[in-house]
Every structure is written in C-alpha cells, then in structure tokens.
UniProtKB/TrEMBL annotation, chains A, B:
Name of the protein in its database record: Polyprenyl synthetase family protein
GO terms for biological process, alphabetical: phospholipid biosynthetic process; terpenoid biosynthetic process
Gene Ontology MF term list: metal ion binding; prenyltransferase activity
Organism: Dyella choica
Gene3D superfamilies linked: Farnesyl Diphosphate Synthase
Cofactor(s) essential for the protein: Mg(2+)
Family: Belongs to the FPP/GGPP synthase family.
Keyword Calcium tagged: no
Highest taxon above the source species: Bacteria
A Pfam family matched in the record: polyprenyl_synt
Keyword Magnesium: yes
CC annotations in GO: cytoplasm
Length: 300, 300
C-alpha cells in the first residue's frame, strides 16, 4: 500500500504547509472582515473556512510532480478553492439544493441570509479571477491561460452547466452515459482543471498535458462515484452535510444505476487508472499517487 | 447644444455599428441556445437582450477618443455588459430586489425559474472574464490589467459590495455621503471601469488615466442621481422596470435627501464637469461629449 511508503508520506508531511499557504493566499486576497460592507466580508470568509481543500492539494501535488516552484501554484490553488466555495454557497440556496448544513456548520444563507448568500457567491467567483490576475509569480501569458481554462471549467459548459443539468434531472432516471456527462461537468471539470493549472505553471509539454488530463478525469469521476456512495452509506455527522439527499431528491446516482458494490468497483478501477496515469507523468509521482490513495480512502 | 453639432452626430451615427459589434462579440462568445444545457444557454442569451448598452458605448466612445483600434475594444465592451447583465439578473431575484420586470420583459427568474436565474448570473460573470482572456486583439499584459480592474470594480469592494450596502440600507435614512459611497460602488464602479478599460487598450499615460477617472466618476454619479429622479417621476412602461420602487422600499435617494429640483441640478452640474473632463482628455472628445448629452437626456 503506497500510503506507507517513505516517498509518499513525504508529500503527506507537506500537506499542512500547503494548506497554510492556501490560507495565507486567501487571507491576503479577501478584504478583512472589518472592511465595509462588514457583513459581506465576514460571510465571504465564513464560506472559505473548513473543507478538505482537495482541489488546492491537487494543484500543489501536480505542480510538485512537475517540478514547479511553489509560489507559482499559490494563486491557482486559491482560485480553484474560491470557485468551489462559491459554487457550494449557491448550490445550497433554497432555490437550488436548499441545504442547511455544509462542512458541519450552517450554510451561508442560514448563518446570514439569502441575499448575502447570493452576493457572497458572486464576490468569491470574482475573487478567483482576481487572484490569478494579481499574482506576481506568473507571467502574463500564464495568467491569461489559467484564467481561460478556469473560466471554461467553471462556466456554462462546465460546472455551472452541470449544476443546471443536475437540477433538471431530479425525478428522472438517467442513463449511465448521461450521469457521467452530468458529473464530468458538475464536479469533474473543476477537479480536472487543477491539473491543467499546474501544467500551465510548469509550461508542460503537450504529452504531459495529455497525461495530466487522464489523471484528472479519472480522479474526477472516481471522486463523484465515491460521493454518491458516501451519500448513501455515511451519516450526516461524518459527512458534515445532509446525508441521503440523492434518494430523497430522487436523483440518479452511480449506486442507483449500478448497485452499490459495482459502483465501488468502478471507482476503484478509476483510482487504479489514475495511479497508472500518474506514473506516466513522472517516475517521481508520489504526490499524485498519495492523493489518489487519500481520496480513495476518505469517509466524507 | 452639442447634440446638433456635426462632429457629435458623427459618433451618434456610429452607435448602431458599435452595438452590432457588441452583439457579434456576445453571440460568438456565448454557447448557442441549442447547446446542452439548452435552457441555461437560452436564458443566458435572454438576459443579454435589450437594454441601452450604455456601458459598452462608453468603452467605444472612450477608446475612439483615445485613438484605439476598434477591435481592441470589443472584448472590454462585451465584458462590462456581461457583468452588468449578470448583476441585473441576481439583483432581480426574490431574495434581493424581487422584481418581475426588466427591460420591458419578465425578469429571468420569472421567464424561467429561480435556480436558472442564479446559474445564469453565475455563468454570465464567468463569461465576462473569459471574453477578456480569449480575445486575440490585446496582448497578455493588457488582458491581465483589464481582468484586474474589472474584478476590482465588480467585486466586494465595488458593485457587489454596493449591492450589499443597498440591501442593508432599506428602511434607513442615509446621509448624503453614505448614499454617494453606496452608489460609487453599486453603479459608479462599473461605469468608471469602462473608461479604465479603454485606457488600458490605449496604453494611456497616467495623466490621461486621471482625466478618464474624473470623467467616469462624474458620469457614474450623475447617472445614478438621474436614475433616482427617473424612478420617482417616470412610469413603469417608459422605464421598462418597476417605477416608484425606491419609495416603496423606503430607500434613501438623491431626491429624498436633496429634493427633486436640487437633485436634478446636482446631476446637471456633474454632467457639465464630465464634459469639462472630456475636453481635458482630448480636443477631439466629441464621442465623450455626445455620451454625456445622451445620458443626460435619457428618459429611461
């Protein structure tokens, strides 16, 4: 099991330092909670707290594997987490998934109000593009490429489009292909883009870009299958968000289409393929291998 | 009256061509209405239809005054209109201003539904940054500068922050300074940024940038005072949005603080100052002079 090998635990040991860098970048970017309008800025910070920050870790792990200087990764790691945070705030709104609990705490519109929830999401999205435009560590060409791929991954052909399809799919039975297409957009695109952003920071070759794409796509789909499995088998306290929602909202899921055991096997096969892709990126891909293990073993 | 002078009507004659360029840029950027998810893409296009497109015209007018090639202005003109359109869609939501009518038609959440309203706003914001990152007419440094100023103008210290203050100010009597600060953010920042974007396209000197800032700030504040006046005196059919809302929502407005006649005089003085600033930018500032006249004379 690669989690116990010394090279792999070396990345695990750096995780706290990476999360600290993420926190510092975010803290420096967002206006202080005491800045007018205070309630908005407080709520923006509240929305960024908690969470596992897997997407930021994927940026750092990919960048490390490609030999990129850490400071070239900070803005990208921060930007993907801001996009993720904004999408959670908006997805939780009453008109969307109407959820009260997120990361073990009240959702933004419950802790504040619905108008603040809308505005917090809006401003966090803006901040994601701002942090990429502002960083001193990248050249202008890299910044523009990063903004382009992040916009594509998070817009109407990516994450937002996936959420629209998801909303429209309640009470419908999807085919497996439809479900995969939905999730490739709703969660997959933002996971894939973490690898692409690190590739841009590394000025990676086209061959490396393709290997990154394979890794990112496998992790993204495996992550979502696992999410569906966890929604079905885990409890709300462990998840930090409402469990059993997919069934309650009559959503098609990988377990509902494939059965629980088959869904798990499919996820495991995708994690294996991701590890294979990681080895194709570099013979020192410990960080990416560790992340695949880490995500595979998560219980929330 | 400058509206009748030959130089000035030359810009007026170009307005239809500028609006056509805006439409072409937006049409090429946004996925077709037949692209999956169709309902989202239809609604995104619906949200961009209608309106006077004053902000796009300000980009073109400023750029023309500074001698910028038109194709360097297209992405900026499109981006500010996308940010404006997204903000209208979100501001109209039930949890915000709860409005049924916009640009003479049902608001997005009335024509579609609330979830689509949230997602349309989200995706239009993304598109604004995407069009700037994608344009071939600007160098990477200019794109990054444009993205930076647009993010700043539209985020929590600009437009979104102003909307948060506005929501929190219902049923409160503001001082004139507070009202001006609110509107400098809520509407002023996005109007000012139109001049700044054109300045970036022109690689303008710092002196020109300062004159642009004076023009943009005067127009922005005058525009908002006039908006308050029109909300009070015009009817819903002319405005294309619900009239008399400020009084109904117990909002402080320039007429409520200054009286109607004083508010009008203050707007007129600001339009005069804007014209003065325009003459400081160039001795061939007909486009900017015409825009000041055009905005001053609008009835909706």
């Amino acid at each position: 099991m690669s989690l116990t090998s010394p090279e792999v635990s070396a990345f695990a040991q750096r995780v706290p330092a990476y999360l600290q860098r993420l926190e510092r970048t975010t803290d420096a970017l967002l206006p202080a909670a005491s800045t007018d309008p205070e309630r908005l800025h407080q709520a923006m910070r509240y929305a960024c707290e908690g969470g596992k920050h897997l997407r930021a870790l994927m940026v750092y792990a990919t960048g490390e594997t490609l030999g990129v200087a850490i400071d070239k990764l900070d803005a990208a790691a921060c930007a993907v987490e801001l996009i993720h945070a904004y999408s959670l705030v908006h997805d939780d709104l009453p008109a969307m998934d109407n959820d009260d609990l997120r990361r073990g705490r009240p959702t933004v519109h419950k802790a504040y109000d619905e108008a603040i929830g809308i505005l917090v999401g809006d401003a966090l999205q803006t901040s994601a593009f701002e942090v990429l435009a502002n960083t001193a560590a990248l050249d202008a060409e890299q910044k523009v490429r990063m903004i382009r791929v992040l916009a594509h991954a998070s817009g109407s052909l990516g994450m937002v489009g996936g959420q629209a399809v998801d909303m429209a799919s309640e009470n419908k039975t999807l085919t497996l292909a439809q479900l995969q297409s939905l999730h490739a957009r709703k969660t997959g695109a933002l996971i894939l883009v973490t690898c692409q952003l690190a590739g841009i920071a590394a000025n990676a070759s086209e061959a490396v870009e393709q290997a990154l794409e394979r890794y990112g796509k496998c992790i993204g789909l495996a992550f979502q299958i696992q999410d569906d499995v966890l929604d079905q088998i885990a409890d709300t306290a462990t998840l930090g968000k409402t469990a059993g929602k997919d069934v309650a909202q009559h959503k098609s899921t990988f377990p509902s289409l494939l059965g629980l055991e088959q869904a798990r096997q499919r996820a495991d096969a995708l994690f294996d393929e991701a590890r294979d892709a990681a080895r194709g990126i570099s013979d020192q891909a410990e960080a990416l291998l560790w992340l695949a293990d880490f995500i595979q073993q998560r219980d929330h």
